[in-house]
């Protein structure tokens, strides 16, 4: 069973990683988000699913 400390550490790391691009390049990040907002729901779901799947595989390989 995962410890709360590990879960909160993982969440904190996600927040750090998510904050890198808006910090380094706010204009580039904003432009990317505008482009993403124009994508169809199906495309966004596919990208999200692929991202989750890659993350799960990566976690499996690391453990």
Automatic annotation (TrEMBL):
Keyword Membrane assigned: yes
Output the InterPro entries linked to this UniProt entry. DUF2065 (IPR019201)
Task: Answer yes or no on keyword Membrane.
Answer: yes
For this UniProt record, the keywords arranged alphabetically read as follows:
Membrane, Transmembrane, Transmembrane helix
Q: Which residues cross the membrane?
A: 7-24, 44-62
Parts forming coiled coils = none
Query: Record's superkingdom?
Result: Bacteria
PANTHER family of this UniProt entry?
INNER MEMBRANE PROTEIN (PTHR38602:SF1), INNER MEMBRANE PROTEIN-RELATED (PTHR38602)
Q: What is this protein called?
A: DUF2065 domain-containing protein
Q: What is the species listed in this Swiss-Prot or TrEMBL entry?
A: endosymbiont of Galathealinum brachiosum
């Amino acid at each position: 069973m995962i410890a709360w400390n590990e879960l909160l550490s993982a969440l904190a790391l996600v927040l750090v990683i998510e904050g890198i691009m808006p910090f380094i390049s706010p204009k580039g990040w904003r432009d990317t988000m505008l482009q993403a907002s124009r994508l169809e729901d199906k495309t966004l779901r596919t990208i999200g699913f692929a991202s989750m799947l890659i993350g799960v595989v990566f976690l499996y390989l690391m453990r």
